[in-house]
Design brief:
eight-stranded antiparallel β-sheet, homodimer, alpha+beta
């Protein structure tokens, strides 16, 4: 796998360098970042483990509001929720593997259990995760609020604040 | 996207629950985890930012030795290397989006610049990243050593030590 992976990446980086189609301004980075968020079925949630080591887990990309807010559905009993209760600093990462693009959003997470938030992310059959239904105490909603973003494309990357 | 994503995930979780094909022992988790690492073109590297927030970036999955060691190629001047010089705690995450599988490896990273390590990950055309060639001071190799793993599949997850 490795040889092919590197050769493909090098070829793509060379083409991109020659074409000069790289992201150089914040407006384009935000637009392409939002496009990536809109089309992604999953994203990666980064948290700080109880031992201080970084942790990553794939999450369903269920709902977002621009690049500022992202909501996740999770089990209250999960390791992630226990970690976030102690340290709510987080990041969310979206990747477009085929086009060598990535968006990292850095911010904080609020753990919600109010009925409106629960209903917002509920779907028929979600009892497979939360057997007691929409009011299951083991059902929590994570609300991520971004403060900063990094957009990666090929050889370039651009950092910007999220207002 | 969100509605479809959740419905697909629920359906897959229900089928998997009914079939009872979930991972329950460490040997299977290690075997399936290794299979995922073997076939992945990219993985996500988690680090701790200078402000203490978790950071994630996609990396090319170039070379590994079982689940214990993973090597990455990167720019010495990159933000990642600066972060790792201050705090070398890291995690590496592999995901199989279609089958709702994920593997998180937690460990530490050593920054290498010796010629053997450089040559090991070098490929023709890699000057697009490191213009001065295999001895470019801006070319570093990251060697990740895992101490613990988490394998996720559908509704289950299993934690085990990496010897």
């Amino acid at each position: 796998m490795s040889e092919d992976t590197l050769k493909k990446a090098i070829k793509s980086a060379q083409e991109s360098k020659n074409k000069g189609g790289l992201i150089t301004n914040q407006r384009d980075a935000m637009a392409q970042g939002l496009e990536l968020v809109d089309k992604s079925a999953i994203c990666m949630l980064g948290t700080i483990g109880e031992d201080g080591f970084p942790n990553i887990k794939a999450m369903l990309n269920l709902r977002h509001e621009g690049l500022k807010k992202i909501w996740f559905s999770t089990n209250t009993s999960s390791r992630r929720v226990q970690q976030l209760k102690k340290d709510n600093r987080a990041c969310v990462y979206y990747v477009d593997e085929a086009n060598f693009k990535g968006l990292m959003l850095v911010g904080t997470i609020e753990i919600l259990q109010d009925i409106e938030s629960r209903k917002m992310l509920w779907s028929e059959g979600a009892e497979v995760y939360y057997p007691l239904g929409v009011e299951d105490p083991d059902y929590s909603v994570l609300c991520f609020t971004a403060k900063q973003a990094n957009f990666y494309h090929q050889l370039t990357n651009l950092t910007f604040e999220i207002e």
